[in-house]
Amino acid sequence: MCINGVSETPNVTVSCFITGPGFNGVLAKGKTANLTGAGTVTMKCNGQGYMRCDARVDIPPPSQ
Fold it and tell me: Total structural domains in the chain?
């Protein structure tokens, strides 16, 4: 889930660029993607200027 994205440049929309098992793309704030398995997840900010982004990966318990 892309939690937040902000830029010091006025009027710029910032999103999260996520790469992981089964997903490679841009997520707007509040949007989620379903990953298909275990592996490395990389997140970068997508926008202009000096940016900060936050993302969250929810991992189900091993019993599921």
Answer: 1
Residue 62 lies in a domain: no
In a domain, residue 24? The reply is yes
Indicate the pTM of the whole model: 0.80
Looking up tokens 């992981």 gives: 20
Host domain of residue 46: 2-55
| Count of Cβ atoms closer than 10 Å to residue 1 Cβ | 15
Q: How many CB atoms lie within 10 A of CB 19?
A: 13
With a cut of 50, which residues of the chain have pLDDT below it? Answer: none
Q: Is 47 left (phi over 0), alpha (psi -120 to 50) or beta?
A: left
What is the rounded CA–CA span in Å between residue 23 and residue 56? 14
